[in-house]
Amino acid sequence: MSTQENERPPFYWERMSKAGDEMHVAQQMGPDLAAFRRGLGREPGEVPGMWRFYTKLTADGRVTDALRAEHAALALFGLHQQGGGAPVHVNGRPMGAALHDLRSSPKYSEQAVDAHFARAATADEPGEVIYHLRGLVQQLKAANITGFDYTTLYFDLLAWHRTAEVGRIRRRWAGQYFQRPAATTGKDPA
Predict the structure, then answer these.
(1) pLDDT of 89 strictly over 50
(2) pLDDT for position 158
(3) What's the distance, Cα to Cα, between the start and end of the chain in Å?
(4) Could you tell me where the DSSP H helices lie in 109-189?
(5) Number of Cβ within a 10 Å radius of residue 126
(6) H helical segments located in the chain
(7) Quick check: 186 pLDDT over 50?
(8) What pLDDT score was predicted for residue 183?
(9) pTM given for the model
(10) CA 11/CA 55 separation, integer angstroms
(11) Contact present, 11 and 70 (Cβ < 8 Å)
(12) What is the pLDDT of residue 176?
Protein backbone atom coordinates (compact mmCIF):
# COMPACT_ATOMS: atom_id res chain seq x y z
CA MET A 1 0.00 0.00 0.00
CA SER A 2 1.37 3.41 -0.87
CA THR A 3 2.05 6.13 1.69
CA GLN A 4 -0.82 8.13 0.23
CA GLU A 5 -3.24 5.22 0.86
CA ASN A 6 -1.94 4.89 4.44
CA GLU A 7 -2.73 8.57 5.02
CA ARG A 8 -6.25 8.49 3.63
CA PRO A 9 -9.17 9.05 6.01
CA PRO A 10 -10.80 5.76 7.05
CA PHE A 11 -13.88 4.66 5.19
CA TYR A 12 -17.16 4.46 7.12
CA TRP A 13 -17.13 0.65 7.26
CA GLU A 14 -13.58 0.70 8.68
CA ARG A 15 -14.55 3.10 11.46
CA MET A 16 -17.66 1.16 12.38
CA SER A 17 -15.94 -2.24 12.41
CA LYS A 18 -13.50 -0.90 15.02
CA ALA A 19 -16.07 1.00 17.08
CA GLY A 20 -16.53 -1.68 19.75
CA ASP A 21 -19.89 -2.44 21.37
CA GLU A 22 -22.03 -4.08 18.66
CA MET A 23 -25.36 -2.98 20.16
CA HIS A 24 -24.32 0.68 20.33
CA VAL A 25 -22.79 0.55 16.86
CA ALA A 26 -25.91 -1.07 15.40
CA GLN A 27 -28.13 1.65 16.90
CA GLN A 28 -25.80 4.38 15.66
CA MET A 29 -25.60 2.93 12.17
CA GLY A 30 -29.34 2.49 11.53
CA PRO A 31 -30.00 5.89 9.91
CA ASP A 32 -26.65 5.79 8.12
CA LEU A 33 -27.38 2.37 6.60
CA ALA A 34 -30.80 3.56 5.44
CA ALA A 35 -29.13 6.46 3.61
CA PHE A 36 -26.61 4.09 2.05
CA ARG A 37 -29.35 1.74 0.83
CA ARG A 38 -31.12 4.72 -0.79
CA GLY A 39 -27.93 5.10 -2.82
CA LEU A 40 -28.40 1.71 -4.50
CA GLY A 41 -28.86 2.22 -8.22
CA ARG A 42 -28.33 5.98 -7.94
CA GLU A 43 -25.48 8.25 -8.91
CA PRO A 44 -23.01 9.53 -6.32
CA GLY A 45 -24.26 12.73 -4.76
CA GLU A 46 -27.96 12.08 -5.45
CA VAL A 47 -28.64 11.05 -1.84
CA PRO A 48 -27.93 13.96 0.52
CA GLY A 49 -27.89 11.58 3.49
CA MET A 50 -24.68 10.04 2.11
CA TRP A 51 -22.73 13.27 1.57
CA ARG A 52 -21.14 13.45 5.02
CA PHE A 53 -19.84 9.89 4.74
CA TYR A 54 -17.96 10.31 1.48
CA THR A 55 -14.19 10.61 1.75
CA LYS A 56 -13.76 11.06 -2.02
CA LEU A 57 -15.81 14.23 -2.66
CA THR A 58 -14.03 16.93 -4.64
CA ALA A 59 -14.34 20.67 -4.05
CA ASP A 60 -15.47 21.19 -7.64
CA GLY A 61 -18.24 18.57 -7.44
CA ARG A 62 -16.88 16.24 -10.12
CA VAL A 63 -17.99 12.64 -10.00
CA THR A 64 -14.67 10.81 -10.04
CA ASP A 65 -14.03 7.08 -10.36
CA ALA A 66 -12.99 7.12 -6.69
CA LEU A 67 -16.31 8.68 -5.66
CA ARG A 68 -18.23 6.17 -7.80
CA ALA A 69 -16.37 3.27 -6.17
CA GLU A 70 -16.89 4.64 -2.66
CA HIS A 71 -20.58 5.30 -3.32
CA ALA A 72 -21.09 1.74 -4.56
CA ALA A 73 -19.18 0.21 -1.64
CA LEU A 74 -21.17 2.29 0.87
CA ALA A 75 -24.47 1.28 -0.76
CA LEU A 76 -23.54 -2.42 -0.79
CA PHE A 77 -22.28 -2.18 2.79
CA GLY A 78 -25.57 -0.56 3.84
CA LEU A 79 -27.52 -3.39 2.26
CA HIS A 80 -25.29 -6.07 3.78
CA GLN A 81 -25.09 -4.61 7.32
CA GLN A 82 -28.84 -3.86 7.61
CA GLY A 83 -30.30 -5.61 10.63
CA GLY A 84 -27.07 -7.43 11.42
CA GLY A 85 -25.18 -7.24 14.68
CA ALA A 86 -21.68 -8.33 13.74
CA PRO A 87 -19.82 -6.04 11.37
CA VAL A 88 -19.93 -7.24 7.76
CA HIS A 89 -16.65 -5.47 7.00
CA VAL A 90 -14.06 -8.11 7.89
CA ASN A 91 -10.60 -6.69 7.36
CA GLY A 92 -8.46 -9.00 5.22
CA ARG A 93 -11.24 -11.47 4.30
CA PRO A 94 -11.57 -11.67 0.53
CA MET A 95 -14.99 -11.24 -1.01
CA GLY A 96 -14.33 -14.39 -3.05
CA ALA A 97 -13.90 -16.37 0.18
CA ALA A 98 -17.29 -15.17 1.45
CA LEU A 99 -18.85 -16.09 -1.90
CA HIS A 100 -17.10 -19.48 -1.71
CA ASP A 101 -18.88 -20.03 1.61
CA LEU A 102 -22.15 -18.99 -0.03
CA ARG A 103 -21.53 -21.56 -2.77
CA SER A 104 -21.13 -24.24 -0.08
CA SER A 105 -24.22 -23.08 1.82
CA PRO A 106 -27.37 -25.23 1.71
CA LYS A 107 -29.47 -22.09 1.13
CA TYR A 108 -28.64 -21.87 -2.59
CA SER A 109 -27.53 -24.37 -5.21
CA GLU A 110 -23.90 -24.28 -6.32
CA GLN A 111 -25.02 -23.81 -9.92
CA ALA A 112 -27.16 -20.78 -9.07
CA VAL A 113 -24.38 -19.11 -7.07
CA ASP A 114 -21.82 -20.00 -9.77
CA ALA A 115 -24.00 -18.37 -12.43
CA HIS A 116 -24.55 -15.24 -10.34
CA PHE A 117 -20.84 -15.00 -9.52
CA ALA A 118 -19.92 -15.44 -13.19
CA ARG A 119 -22.26 -12.60 -14.21
CA ALA A 120 -20.61 -10.30 -11.64
CA ALA A 121 -17.04 -11.28 -12.47
CA THR A 122 -17.50 -11.00 -16.23
CA ALA A 123 -19.38 -7.70 -16.18
CA ASP A 124 -17.82 -5.20 -18.54
CA GLU A 125 -19.03 -1.98 -16.96
CA PRO A 126 -18.66 -0.89 -13.32
CA GLY A 127 -22.44 -0.34 -13.04
CA GLU A 128 -23.07 -3.86 -14.26
CA VAL A 129 -20.67 -5.45 -11.75
CA ILE A 130 -22.28 -3.43 -8.95
CA TYR A 131 -25.74 -4.59 -10.04
CA HIS A 132 -24.68 -8.24 -9.84
CA LEU A 133 -22.77 -7.74 -6.58
CA ARG A 134 -25.96 -6.34 -5.08
CA GLY A 135 -27.68 -9.67 -5.70
CA LEU A 136 -24.75 -11.61 -4.25
CA VAL A 137 -24.67 -9.40 -1.15
CA GLN A 138 -28.40 -10.05 -0.67
CA GLN A 139 -27.71 -13.78 -0.88
CA LEU A 140 -24.80 -13.54 1.59
CA LYS A 141 -27.07 -11.70 4.00
CA ALA A 142 -29.93 -14.19 3.59
CA ALA A 143 -27.55 -17.12 4.17
CA ASN A 144 -26.02 -15.35 7.21
CA ILE A 145 -22.51 -15.66 5.75
CA THR A 146 -19.69 -13.73 7.42
CA GLY A 147 -18.82 -10.52 5.61
CA PHE A 148 -15.72 -9.54 3.72
CA ASP A 149 -13.23 -6.70 3.30
CA TYR A 150 -15.15 -3.71 1.91
CA THR A 151 -11.95 -1.71 1.55
CA THR A 152 -10.61 -4.27 -0.91
CA LEU A 153 -13.98 -4.16 -2.69
CA TYR A 154 -13.65 -0.36 -2.94
CA PHE A 155 -10.22 -0.69 -4.59
CA ASP A 156 -11.53 -3.42 -6.92
CA LEU A 157 -14.46 -1.24 -7.98
CA LEU A 158 -12.09 1.68 -8.48
CA ALA A 159 -9.84 -0.48 -10.65
CA TRP A 160 -12.86 -1.69 -12.68
CA HIS A 161 -12.78 1.74 -14.32
CA ARG A 162 -9.32 0.89 -15.69
CA THR A 163 -9.83 -1.79 -18.29
CA ALA A 164 -6.26 -3.09 -18.02
CA GLU A 165 -6.81 -4.13 -14.38
CA VAL A 166 -10.14 -5.92 -14.74
CA GLY A 167 -8.61 -9.23 -15.85
CA ARG A 168 -6.39 -9.38 -12.76
CA ILE A 169 -9.35 -8.69 -10.47
CA ARG A 170 -11.46 -11.34 -12.19
CA ARG A 171 -8.69 -13.93 -11.80
CA ARG A 172 -8.21 -13.03 -8.12
CA TRP A 173 -11.95 -13.26 -7.44
CA ALA A 174 -12.12 -16.61 -9.24
CA GLY A 175 -9.12 -17.93 -7.32
CA GLN A 176 -10.76 -16.97 -4.03
CA TYR A 177 -14.17 -18.26 -5.07
CA PHE A 178 -13.03 -21.65 -6.35
CA GLN A 179 -10.68 -22.30 -3.41
CA ARG A 180 -9.40 -25.82 -3.22
CA PRO A 181 -7.77 -27.24 -0.13
CA ALA A 182 -4.01 -27.71 -0.51
CA ALA A 183 -2.80 -31.29 -0.85
CA THR A 184 -1.82 -32.99 2.40
CA THR A 185 1.84 -32.62 1.42
CA GLY A 186 1.43 -28.85 1.56
CA LYS A 187 2.38 -28.56 -2.11
CA ASP A 188 0.27 -26.87 -4.71
CA PRO A 189 -1.96 -29.59 -6.26
CA ALA A 190 -1.31 -28.19 -9.74
Answers:
(1) yes
(2) 97
(3) 30
(4) 110-121, 126-142, 150-159, 163-177
(5) 18
(6) 3-6, 12-17, 22-38, 65-81, 95-104, 110-121, 126-142, 150-159, 163-177
(7) no
(8) 44
(9) 0.88
(10) 7
(11) yes
(12) 95
